[in-house]
TrEMBL record:
It comes from Epilithonimonas lactis. This is Uncharacterized protein.
Length: 245
């Protein structure tokens, strides 16, 4: 009989312990704007330490299980600039068009890219990019440059159509990534490079969340996310306004 009562008592203890575990809710860390900015900057710095360009300019993560890639220069070892907005850009030597064409703020651009988005977070006191999400990948995707780039310049017709359909009044920032616009000013485009031409990526633009969409609603639902644009501009040309708007 004692064994039966002891078994019941132990069962109750276990059940109470399980109930306590079920009642506990993981605490979500909500960063202030200043903390978010600090996290984004630290994560971008670590990203440049942990990645390198392969022979075609594609960003690759160092493999911690082997030393075969240790000879590759880190992204951080390349000449790079950090703009007041927090945007960082790196231009690969030997991968720029000569002389190239300036990229206007309303231009139609043809962009070959592998672009990913990340959330900055801290694990074991180390701040890094996590929650990787592929924004656009022309290498694994179509294999040809992207010709519609509303995140660079959204046509007014597209914006009007969205607002009409959804009863909203969003401005251009609902689609456009300001940090990309800013970073591309430091690059030039090729002159109508054949889309079938194999890529040789020009470099990278790292856009912290504050220079992307920050905490604002946007068409991509990418809030508090940084972007890494690894790209080559195959062509740019002046947009015919208002016809192409």
């Amino acid at each position: 009989m004692k064994k039966i009562f002891l078994g019941i008592a132990l069962s109750l203890v276990v059940l109470q312990g399980c109930k306590k575990d079920d009642d506990e809710v993981d605490e979500t860390v909500v960063l202030t704007v200043e903390e978010q900015n600090t996290y984004d900057d630290a994560a971008a710095t670590k990203f440049m330490e942990d990645h390198y360009f392969n022979s075609k300019g594609l960003i690759v993560a160092f493999d911690s299980t082997t030393d075969t890639d240790d000879a590759n220069p880190k992204l951080s070892s390349y000449p790079h600039e950090k703009l007041p907005s927090g945007v960082i850009y790196i231009k690969r030597t030997g991968a720029q068009p000569e002389p190239g064409k300036d990229i206007g703020s309303t231009d139609v651009i043809s962009l070959f890219q592998v672009t990913k988005s990340y959330v900055s977070s801290k694990t074991n006191d180390i701040i890094s990019f996590g929650g990787e999400s592929t924004f656009i990948d022309n290498v694994l995707g179509s294999g040809v440059p992207t010709s519609e780039t509303p995140y660079f310049y959204v046509k007014q017709s597209i914006l009007d159509k969205y607002n009409t359909a959804n009863g909203t009044n969003h401005g251009r920032s609902f689609y456009e990534i300001e940090g990309l616009q800013e970073g591309l000013k430091y690059f030039k485009s090729y002159d109508n490079l054949n889309p079938a031409t194999d890529y040789n990526l020009q470099g990278v633009i790292i856009v912290p969340s504050r220079a992307a969409f920050g905490r604002e609603n946007n068409v991509y639902s990418y809030m508090n996310r940084s972007f890494v644009f690894n790209f080559q501009v195959y062509n740019s040309r002046a947009r015919v306004l208002p016809g192409e708007n």
